[in-house]
Amino acid sequence: xxxxxxxxxxxxxxxxxxxxxxxxxxxxxxxxxxxxxxxxxxxxxxxxxxxxxxxxxxxxxxxxxxxxxxxxxxxxxxxxxxxxxxxxxxxxxxxxxxxxxxxxxxxxxxxxxxxxxxxxxxxxxxxxxxxxxxxxxxxxxxxxxxxxxxxxxxxxxxxxxxxxxxxxxxxxxxxxxxxxxxxxxxxxxxxxxxxxxxxxxxxxxxxxxxxxxxxxxxxxxxxxxxxxxxxxxxxxxxxxxxxxxxxxxxxxxxxxxxxxxxxxxx
Amino acid sequence: xxxxxxxxxxxxxxxxxxxxxxxxxxxxxxxxxxxxxxxxxxxxxxxxxxxxxxxxxxxxxxxxxxxxxxxxxxxxxxxxxxxxxxxxxxxxxxxxxxxxxxxxxxxxxxxxxxxxxxxxxxxxxxxxxxxxxxxxxxxxxxxxxxxxxxxxxxxxxxxxxxxxxxxxxxxxxxxxxxxxxxxxxxxxxxxxxxxxxxxxxxxxxxxxxxxxxxxxxxxxxxxxxxxxxxxxxxxxxxxxxxxxxxxxxxxxxxxxxxxxxxxxxxxxxxxxxxxxxxxxxxxxxxxxxxxxxxxxxxxxxxxxxxxxxxxxxxxxxxxxxxxxxxxxxxxxxxx
Lengths: 266, 335
Description:
The complex is a heterodimer of chains A (266) and B (335).
Chain A: H1 5-32, H2 50-57, H3 59-92, H4 98-106, H5 113-128, H6 137-162, H7 166-173, H8 178-206, H9 210-215, H10 223-231, H11 237-263
Chain B: E1 7-18, E2 21-32, E3 36-40, H1 47-55, E4 62-67, E5 70-71, E6 82-85, H2 97-107, H3 112-125, H4 141-153, E7 159-163, H5 171-188, E8 191-196, H6 199-205, E9 208-213, E10 216-221, H7 223-228, H8 233-238, E11 243-244, E12 248-250, E13 256-258, E14 268-280, E15 284-291, E16 296-302, H9 308-312, E17 318-324, E18 329-330
Parallel strand pairs in B: 3-8, 3-9, 6-7, 7-8
Antiparallel strand pairs in B: 1-2, 1-4, 4-5, 9-10, 11-12, 12-18, 13-17, 14-15, 14-17, 15-16
C-alpha cells in the first residue's frame, strides 16, 4: 500500500505517541527505583542503589517471587499437556461439536479475570474443600491453567495448520509405528511452537492478579499480589518500585524468545 | 489367499465410500511384477483413493488388496512392502537430505554404516551426489522430487506408488523427469504404480494404463490399445482428441486434408466439407471441418512446410478428408 507523504508522517507520529504512552511510565518505574527521594520527587535530585539492597533483603518479596515461579511452572506444565492435546483433537480429527470445543478452549482468555476468579473460588470451596483439598498453591495453578491453555492451544494449532499431515503419512509409509512417528516427526516439528507457547503461558501466569486473589489460600502470595498489598504502605513503596523494575526487565526475556521461536519455521 | 504368481498388486471388488459419496465404486485390477503402471483419470475419478488404499492410508469399505499374493487389506502402512512418493513430496523439513533418505532404513534397524552407504547410492541414482547435508528447503522442486524418489527406493520396496509425481513441476522439467523416471524404473526393476490426470504423461511412461472415471475403471490396456482402440466414449474423449460421429471414431492425426476431386484410393474412407476453423499450434495445425453430410471432424496436420499464413488461408476452403479404414474404431455407448 502506498501512502501520501502527509499520511506517512501522521501515521508515524501516532505510532510514536502510542509506544511512548506504553513505555515512558515503565521507564519512570526504572528511574524511580533509583530515586533517592522517598516521595519520588521529579526530577530525581539524587540517585541511589539503597532500595535495591532493601528489596534483596525483603523476605516477603523473595517468598512471593518463589511462589510465583512455582505457580507459573505448574500452570505452564498443565497447559502444555492439555493445550496440545486439545489442539491435536481439534486439528486432526473431525467430530461433532469440534468448533464448539475450539471456542470453549479459547474463551477463558477473553473472560474477565475477576469472573473466572469468583467462579473458581466458589467451585473450589463447595467441591474441593469438603473433599479435603483447600485453597492453596494447587488451586492457583489450576486457575492460571485455564487461560494458559489458550496460548499453548493457539500456538500448536497454528503450527499444525502450517505443517502438512503428509509428513506423518510419509513416516508411516517408511515403516514408522505411531509412536515412532510422534517421536521422530510430529514432536520435532512442534517443538518450537510448544516452547513459544510455554514461555507465553509462564509470562501470563507470572503477572496474574485477579484470578490469583480468588484462588490463593491464606499464606499463598504471588509477586503481583505482594506488590498490590505493599504499594499502599509508604515505607514499602521504594521496594515495590524495585520489584516492578525487575519484573519489567525479566519479562523482556520470555517474550523475546517466544517471538524468535514463533517466526522460526524449521 | 493366492500364491505369488508374478502379480505385484491385485485389487478385488474394491469400494470406498466417504459418507454418502462413493469414491471407489467396484475396482478389479492386476498389476504385474516389474510393470510401469498408470492410473489415469480426471480429478475425483477415484484413482488417488485407490493408490491410498494400496499404501494403507485408507481402509476400503469393501474388497481386498493383495501385494505379491499376500492379503494386506487391513494392515497398517508400516506393515506393507510398498513405498510412496507423495504429490507434495513430504520431505521432513527438520532433517537433512541424507537423514530423510536413511529414515526408512533407520526404522528397520539397518546398521549405520550400511545406512549411509545405501543413502549415498540412492542419492547417486537420482543424480544428486553431494547433496547429503542440504535441507529440503534449500532444494529446487525437481531436486525435492528426486530426493523423495530416493527416499522411497532406498528401501527396495516390492511396489513403488507415485501420486501425481510430476504435477508440481513446470513443463520442461516434467518432460525431462518423464524420461528419467522411466529409465530409473527399468534399472531398479521395481513395479511402479503412478497416478496422473495427464494423458500425455500416462501414454509416454507406462507399460499399461487403467483409465478411471466415476470410481470405476473404464479400460485397462497398453498405451497403444488405449489410444488406438478406446473401449468407451469416455476413454476416447479423455485420451487424445477424438472425432465422435455416429458409432465410430477416428483420431485427428490420421486424417489427410486433400483438394476436392482427388482420385479415390482403395481401403479408404472420405468425407467432403468446408474448413470452419483453423487453429495454429506451432508444430502443427488443427483444422475443424464442417461436413456436407452434417457433423464435423477435426484433422491435425504437422506444419512440415506450411507456415501460419498459409494454414490460415484454409479457412472457408472446400476440402476432402480421407483416412485409412483401419483407423476407424467403433465406440460403444456406455449406459
